[in-house]
Specification:
Blueprint (H helix, E strand, L loop, with lengths): L9 H5 L5 E3 L8 E10 L4 E11 L6 E7 L19 H4 L8 E8 L1 E7 L5 E10 L3 E12 L8 E2 L3 E5 L4 E2 L2 E2 L2 E2 L16 E10 L3 E4 L2 E7 L2 E11 L3 E5 L3 E7 L2 E7 L5 H19 L6 E7 L5 E4 L2 E5 L4 H13 L8 E2 L6 H17 L7 H23 L16 H23 L1 H14 L4 E2 L1 H10 L5 H8 L6
Parallel strand pairs: 2-14, 20-21, 21-23, 24-25
Antiparallel strand pairs: 1-8, 2-3, 3-8, 4-7, 4-11, 5-8, 6-7, 9-10, 10-18, 12-13, 14-17, 15-18, 16-17, 19-20, 22-23
Helix pairs in contact: 3-4, 4-5, 5-6, 5-7, 6-7, 7-8, 8-9
């Protein structure tokens, strides 16, 4: 464990030296976030100072940087709601509640402004161009107001979820910075891996679950967590005053389970540990020395972050194992290998759900088989297709489309999850287990810590000897009959 020595004044001391420096070919290849934050429960506010280092790995000079302000999706008047009408009643447990983020300073820049289609972008104009192989370092001060909501970011009925609470650098692609709005369908987050160093102070009564490794210090009625995560897709915390905790080790990885009301916590911990070991053997080494699963207030089954998985405390006991395995699979298909979740949601969700079927096929004691889960996806998808065909007369079954193009939760679930499972099962059946597994291992290794395009995934299967391009094409374009 890397021991952190962080002072609350550290960010302020650096302000005068912020700017642009050359990194060259021997410099850093990824950015970094250093955040010093404190949570004040009485006001439902999180105050923070953040130093962010941005490398320019493109061939063009950048005059402006753009950051996603995901927290602004919770503000009053937001165009894109964090939750659909279907889930709003369970999410807003106390009636409608609002939050948002206020950025009060960006040091090291010429100017900054909140912009974007839904006030979801922080535009930062640099003092001078950021040329290729150079890095820019900025310091930001911001305050996040948390809504009363059972969701990724908010004060829930039992816990406080802190995910996507900080300005996140927009994905820089061939057409510049991609600006994605929030979506109640799926996960709109597309971010590069970076190095994180977080200092979070909370009232002493709280326990924090988090990804990465860290240490805690309690004094003067407060508890401070120092956390580090290298080459991580994101950082997130869950705070609770009633957590119980179980721990076990798997191949040198500490697997921790924070729970509130689980009737069989040892069983849940065992599922997390078994699935982590299974996926490590099947796809490639787990990327962190620690993995935390936390039971929290969440309206859906679960949610993945780097080194941390949330599972809803409203799950039935029979549902917990499936959700834990699915979220653990995301430690490979999201946290390790990134993809464009906004444009191609099936690429990680379909693969994570298919990986879940592989796990249960290898562990029959859970009472589910690989065939059971694949058949369930086929049955669900066919029912969806039948209903939509009767209602609209023309059902769009294409898979590569923005989250905002889905009509709602039902269509999104069947295209991204169920059709994704059917796609990977079809490829596995056509190519055989040996080539299929080799393709996934190749995909994991080649794009570890990166964002893989749809074409990259197809290329990994082809390189492993799988004649899969035609299958991918027919499924993704909505041409095949299931």
């Amino acid at each position: 464990m890397k021991k952190l020595t962080v002072c609350a004044l550290g960010a302020a001391v650096l302000l005068s030296s912020l700017g642009i420096t050359a990194c060259g070919k021997g410099g850093t290849e990824r950015g970094s976030y250093s955040i010093v934050a404190e949570y004040f429960p009485e006001e439902r506010k999180l105050t923070a100072e953040m130093n962010v280092t941005v490398p320019n790995g493109t061939e063009n000079a950048l005059e402006e940087l753009k950051f996603e302000l995901w927290a602004n999706a919770y503000r009053e008047g937001a165009k894109y709601s964090p939750v659909s009408e279907l889930y709003a009643p369970s999410a807003y447990y106390n009636g409608m509640s609002y939050g948002g983020i206020e950025v009060t300073a960006v040091n090291g820049a010429e100017s900054f402004s909140v912009c974007g289609e839904d006030e979801n972008i922080l535009g930062v104009k640099l003092k001078e161009p950021l040329y290729p192989d150079e890095t820019a370092t900025l310091s930001m001060t911001f305050t996040v107001t948390l809504a009363e909501i059972n969701h990724r970011l908010g004060v829930g009925e039992n816990t406080v979820n802190l995910a996507a609470f900080y300005p996140v650098l927009c994905h820089l692609g061939e057409n510049g910075f991609a600006e994605y709005v929030y979506s109640s369908n799926g996960d709109p987050f597309v971010s590069e891996c970076a190095d994180y160093e977080i200092t979070l102070t909370v009232p002493e009564a709280y326990t924090a679950a988090y990804g990465g490794t860290g240490e805690e210090v309690a004094e003067n009625g407060k508890k401070t967590y120092h956390v580090v995560a290298e080459n991580a897709r994101d950082t997130a915390f869950v705070l609770g005053t009633e957590f119980k905790k179980l721990t076990r080790a798997v191949n040198g990885v500490a697997v921790e389970y924070y729970y509130l009301s689980d009737l069989s916590p040892e069983k849940t911990l065992a599922t997390a540990a078994e699935s982590l070991e299974f996926f490590s053997d099947r796809f490639g080494k787990y990327a962190s020395p620690r993995y935390a699963v936390v039971q929290t207030d969440f309206p859906y089954g679960g949610m993945e972050f780097a080194g941390l998985s949330m599972i809803s405390n409203s799950l039935r006991e029979t549902e917990i194992a499936h959700v834990v395995v699915h979220e653990t699979a995301h430690q490979w298909w999201y946290a390790t290998v990134g993809s464009n979740q906004f444009e191609n949601a099936w690429q990680d969700e379909g693969l994570a759900e298919f990986s879940t079927a592989l796990f249960f096929g290898a562990f029959p004691d859970y009472g589910k088989s690989y065939a059971d889960l694949v058949n369930a996806s086929v049955k669900s998808y066919r029912a969806f297709y039948s209903v939509h065909s009767q209602v609209s007369g023309n059902t769009d079954t294409s898979m590569n489309r923005p989250l905002t193009a889905f009509s709602g939760d039902y269509e999104y679930r069947n295209i991204a999850y169920d059709k994704g499972v059917i796609l990977f099962d079809r490829i596995k059946s056509e190519t055989g287990d040996k080539k299929f597994d080799a393709a996934l291992r190749r995909y994991c290794e080649k794009f570890r810590g990166k964002i893989a395009r749809y074409e990259d995934m197809v290329a990994c299967f082809e390189a492993a000897g799988c004649n899969a391009a035609g299958i991918f094409d027919s499924f993704v374009k909505g041409l095949c009959v299931i």
